[in-house]
Description:
The complex is a heterodimer of chains A (about 450) and B (about 260).
Chain A: H1 25-33, H2 38-64, H3 73-80, H4 87-99, H5 107-121, H6 132-152, H7 158-183, H8 188-195, H9 203-226, H10 240-266, H11 271-285, H12 289-303, H13 312-338, H14 341-349, H15 354-384, H16 396-403, H17 414-441
Chain B: E1 22-33, E2 36-47, E3 51-55, H1 62-69, E4 77-82, E5 85-86, H2 91-100, E6 101-104, H3 116-127, H4 132-145, H5 161-173, E7 179-183, H6 191-206, E8 210-214, H7 218-224, E9 227-232, E10 235-240, H8 242-247, H9 252-261
Amino acid sequence: MTDATQSDTVFRPKPSLPPPANTVGAVGWLRKNLFGGPIDTIMTLLGLYIIYQIVAFAIDYGIVNAIWSADTYRECLDRNRGEGACWAGIAVWFNSMMYGRYPDEEQWRVNLGGIVLLLWLIPFWLPKITGKIQIGMSAVLTFPFLGAAMFIGGEFGLFLQVMASIALTLFVAVWLHVASTYLSGRSLPDLLVSITGFANKDDRLHKYVLLGAFGVGFVLSMIYLGSWELVEVPTTIWGGLFLTLVISGIGIASALPNGILLALGRRSKMPVIRVFCTAFIELFRSVPLITILFMAVTMMPLFLPVEFNPPKLAMVIVAVCIFAAAYMAETVRGGLQAVNKGQYEAAQAMGLNFWKMMALIVMPQALKLMIPNIVGSFMGLMKDTTLVSIIGLYDILLMGKAAGQNPSWLGFHTEPLLFTAMFFFVLCFAMSKYSQHLERTIGGGYGRR
Amino acid sequence: MSLETQELDDVVHVASAISDEVVIELAGVNKWYGEFHVLKDINLSVNKGERIVICGPSGSGKSTMIRCINRLEEHQAGDIIVNGTEMGNNLKNIDAIRRDVGMVFQQFNLFPHLTVLENCTLAPIWVKNMPKAEAEQIAMQYLERVKIPEQALKYPGQLSGGQQQRVAIARSLCMSPTIMLFDEPTSALDPEMISEVLDVMVGLAESGMTMLVVTHEMGFAKRVADRVIFMDQGEIVEQNTPDEFFTNPKSDRTKLFLSQILAH
Lengths: 449, 264
């Protein structure tokens, strides 16, 4: 072997030359992508013309000829001969499309509930916060109860009061945790342990401190919730975007955990569990959602005792959850199969039991692979919830339709549909963008595999 | 210097530290994949501190045999006893054995979503309930032992194959196993990386670890093994000390195999 330094020929790279003119910069881009040849040029000009026509129509219809204030649809038509939008109607019907027939003076409850949920989820995007999984789990598992207590109101039973109190305690704890992290630089459990003087004691005692703190918060919440005197708003008059978000929110939040359990069950070695899960998935995946909804609201009550008469909304939510779980199960199963068998073997060889192997090794990898499919299912589910309008729940779509049947607003159909479409687009597009962000940021170490 | 470039005759054998205590006992082990009989009546007993190299043509059942020892594969007949615990269908026994037996795979099988350090601390924290700080301290000791402490915060995907395999060895050692199984640990590596992994394994042998190594690295066998086992068609054809095995193989099948593997 010869030594490189003694070699006669020394490698010198050639100097880099500038690229030819007209291939870089804006001009280069235009030449390459839009005006590459005669056909390209014609297509570009045609495209520009079509875009111009659409945009011009949109501006004419939506802005120039639009009517912004009117009392009836007739008035709009008289003023612009139907050549422009009647946004005045949206202004009149806005409240209905948001809240349905939820009483005006009680709508603050819905708004407050939404704000609480948003605040609960904000720590997810704060970089310093620890225990994000626990925060997410607490929100998903307990917020629905707090929400139910706030939105329904009236005299709620002991069960709902206990669950809502747990939720309230956890919510306050999450924000104390945020405050403690940013003010003292320590997480809430650490701070509690050191304030109470248990820092030097045995680690095993620490959890009693936390349990004690939780207990105090829980009792305070129980007392506070007991003092609530909210007017009862039955679910039958809920509606609009609020109803859409309630149904799709619960459906989406429950889909992933239920889907994971069903997918694991379908891959189980235990025949009873496997057969049950497979049958469940195949049955509900093969039936249209609308059929399940009809079954839930018309057939189910026939099989239940007369005195047990759950509200229609509860039936619908259960139906949507079942449907979503069955779909999600197959998405999750696909992700599980994409994880290398060696990962399972390495986890087993280290002595991890089944659930730890799944939670620590397999699921994190599978979920990352599944993000596009999961979000696809979520978006599908969100849009599918408009089917509840067929069984007479006044979600945003049916509320918009109802607007056009009001005597003063007969024929007012296009604008509510556009408005509804805009809402779904904003919500789904946001989900899509967030999923792309997640794909880029989760597990930075994947770069080279 | 790399092991494989050395002449086999020059190799100085690592001192043995075999005790009388039997830690692994395979008695009449049989296994089938459907109709295919992979392991045929395997009898093997391994003493504490013994280093065993298992070689043989592909499909001879060598990997399957060592994978039965920590129940990655289930055997259908015969007994496997590891550290006095009988391997049956009892999950507790299987867990106890797996905690005592470390395994290194051909494809490394590091967890790609965790850093090197997290790979090493995961099992001590979640299986042995060790506090995180202590687990990290132990992990750093072993990463130093395999000579890559500076990579602790990188992800496996950012390391070379040889580095990944050394992390995999450190990860197993973090559970302080008494027995280590190696399933072709260098077969997926580029040639220039084989020696760095073998060096770590030689160091492990010097520390007196009980090792079962499936490998085609005959230099390693010659230097480290107390016993070389040759398998073919699901049977143990021949077992002997490395000196006897390489210079004076008894069976025709072994001679043919050795002539093929040492020819180049």
